[in-house]
Each structure stands twice: as structure tokens, then as C-alpha cells.
Amino acid sequence: MAQKPSIPKGTRDFSPTEVTKRNYIFNVIKEAFENYGFQPIETPSFENSSTLMGKYGEEGDRLIFKILNSGDYLSKANETALHEKNSNALTASISEKALRYDLTVPFARYVVQHQNEIEFPFKRYQMQPVWRADRPQKGRFREFYQCDADVVGSTSLWQEVEFVQLYDDIFTKLELKNTTIKINNRKILSGIAEVIGASDKLIDFTVALDKLDKIGKDGVIKEMLGKGITEEAIKKVDPLLQLQGDNISMLNELKVILKDSDQGLQGVSELEFVINNVAKLGLNTSSLKLDVTLARGLNYYTGAIFEVAAAQVKMGSIGGGGRYDDLTGIFGLKNMSGIGISFGLDRIYLVLEELGLFQKVELPKPKVLFINFGENEALYCLETIKKLRENEVKSELYPDNAKLKKQMNYANKRDINFVVLVGESELNESKYTLKNMKSGDQSSCNFETLLKAVQNS
């Protein structure tokens, strides 16, 4: 009995309609990226493990898909690790490559490798799939697309302002209105950790804080305690978890809370610059909201951090990003600040679908279908099709000499505008019978008339 086909959990097949809808989103994002001056690059789907590991924190490292070495991968396995069932030590000896977890770390590697070919500041965009060994659920997949835009080679805060505008522009064009662009600054989080006496637990602190929306305040406190953050320190964090009001009033409260932290106050100053200038320039349909609990668990962020949430649909973030001052430094290129944002195409798709925001999808199809009446007629049709395609008219020959009803049904189901019938009489007279499938009109014509008719429809 044949095995029933299946695909791995967390992956999906896409129908022609779904691909067309996804391409619509891709095109809107790509057009905006290029409008803002970004250039396209692509990187391999897999990287050396050493490039990826250690860049995303402990949790991120666990979600990286490792690739077994080619050939007899066990021949060089760490025998002690194999005997002791030490998976971490064993993995290092049997896997040298891994599927990329995101597009930012590979981009940093790209910048370092190609630094002599790049004009800085370098603005790049990249739209490719990434893979994470996560638990599949609604809006969370193991294979998904990211659409990233980054700038490296400048510390200017005007870039943060422009990225907020870019988010707003793209979601406005997708008619996904009332999105909330959350913003925070990693320096503020470092300042908070300093003020509460938990600087040595900064990563544990930010990772736990980033889960506030998922596990709630009690869950965050429990995780912090489990990581060795004291109850006294957690009590000092409590006012921040209750912080409310408009952006300016929250910034003013932060100035008081962080008065003893220079780094924290620098973060407040940077946020103030971005928030004030975005307010002066204005946004179309989005809102910018300060969220001091926004942490984004990735270790490489050093300044502003962003996260975007859609209104009306509970989906998790549909975009995120931030500034990273040290990412290229781990590959040997110092003093190269960067900032980038990402659009989660798959979640954006689900939100647009749920809200009914997709316009009617026009699937790729020929404008003209030529009916197949036999070998001689088919050759004559293909000669004509070649000339039509040279004139940018999408044309197709039905491949089989099937019953006329079957071929006409094919044209109807694909919503093809015109059908051309070439039988023995048309062949002898070098003519065509052109049928308009919308009106039902049918006429005999030469090539010039046929071309004009289908071009003007």
C-alpha cells in the first residue's frame, strides 16, 4: 500500500490563489523598500553553524535547525558525547551547518565579507524564508518569510524616524489601518536593570520581560525569580509594569525613575527624539506607542526596538526590529552601527485574510486559448502563438486533441477571455475563428485583426 504523502509540521503548501495573494504583499513591501532607497540582496538558506550560534540567546539557539554533515556524519562524532547522550556536545561534532534563523545575522556576515564592495551607509532589503524549530500554532510556523530592511554604517536617529514612517506607509498601502508601532530602547532596559541592582542579569531580565503579553505579570515574576533575580529587585520593577499615559508623560516618568542611570537617560533622550519628530512629521494610519515592557529577547539589540501589532486580530507581532551597534563586531568589523526592521509576511497574510482586506485576486492566465484539433492545426496554432507572445499577449495551446466540450470547459474554468478555433478550413485559408468568451461573439479573421482584437480587450 502506497504511503500517504504529507509535509512536515509547521510548513505549508500554497495554492495558485494563495501565492498570488502573497505576491501582492511582497510587491507592496518591495515597492516601498525601493521608494525609501533600499537595495536588494540574498544570502544562502543555510550558514555555517558558527555564524548563527550564540547570536540569539539561549532560547534562540535551541530553535535553530541543524544540518547533519554530509556522508557518514557519525564517523567524526564525539564518542564520549555519543556514549553519554550529551546532545549539545554531539551536535557540534556531527553538524557544521544550520538553516538561517533570521535575515539579520546573515546580513551582518554579508557586510563583513563584502565590506570593500559596499558604499556606506548601506541600505539593503531582503525577502527570503527563515526556519525555526518552534512549536507550530496559529501564526507561528517553522518555515516562514521575513521581509527585512536595514541600514548599516550610521548612528543617526533619523533612521529610526524613517523606519516608523516605512512601517506606516506599507501598512497603509495594505489597508491594514490602526496598526500600533510599539517602541522602546534597550538602553532603558539596561538602565532599569542597573537601578534595581540586576545588571548582571540583564539578558534574563529582558527575556522574561518580553513574555509579559504571553504569560502575564505573575508568569514574568516567576521566571525572574527562577533566574535568580531577587524579590526586592522585582518590586522595584513593578511601577514600570503599571506605567500608562501618553508617550510624553511616560517619558517624563522614566526620567525620574532612571535619574541615577546615565545609560537609561540616554535611552530616554533617544526615544524622545524619535517620538517628537514622528509627531511633527505625522503618520497616515498607524500610531506610535512607547512600551517600556517591550524587550525583544534577541541579544544583539542595543538601542531602539520596535514591534508592530495589528488592530482587531489577535495574531502576535506582524513586524519588529531595532538598532544593533555590535553585530558586525562579532565577525571582526568594529564601529559599524546598524538598524533594521522586519515584516512577517505570513502573519500579515493571515491578518489581511481574516479582515477581508484582499482585493479580488487575478490569477495568472492566458488571454487567448487555442483549441487543439490535431497535429497540423496545432503546429499552425503554435506558430501564431509564438507571434502573439512576441507582442506580449499571453497565449496557450490546449495540449491534447480532446473533445471540443472539454477544451471549452477548460477555457471557462480558467476565465480565459478569448478562444481561437483552427480547423481544416481555417488552415487552408490562413485564417482564424476568434470567439469572445464573455460576449459569445464569434468571427473569422486574419492575424492582424486577431492581434488587434485581443490587445484592445
What can you tell me about this protein's structure?
- This protein has helices at residues 16-35, 49-52, 57-62, 79-84, 87-94, 104-113, 158-173, 186-195, 202-209, 212-226, 231-241, 247-257, 262-281, 345-354, 375-390, 404-413, 424-429, 447-455; strands at residues 39-40, 46-48, 66-67, 97-99, 122-131, 143-152, 180-185, 287-290, 304-309, 317-324, 338-344, 368-370, 395-397, 418-421, 432-436, 442-445.
- Strands 1-5-6-11-10-9-7-8 form an eight-stranded mixed β-sheet. The protein has a five-stranded mixed β-sheet with strand order 13-12-14-15-16.
- The longest helix is centred in the first third of the chain and has 20 residues, at 16-35.
- It is of the alpha+beta class.
- The model has no long low-confidence stretch (mean pLDDT 91).
- It is elongated.
- The protein is 43% helix and 18% strand.
- Helix 1 runs antiparallel to helix 7, helix 9 runs antiparallel to helix 10 and helix 12 runs antiparallel to helix 13 (262-281).
- Belongs to the class-II aminoacyl-tRNA synthetase family.
- Homodimer.
- Residues 1-364 form the Aminoacyl-transfer RNA synthetases class-II family profile domain.
Features:
8-stranded mixed β-sheet, 18 helices, single chain, 457 residues, alpha+beta
Structure summary:
By secondary structure, this protein is α+β, with helices and mostly antiparallel strands.
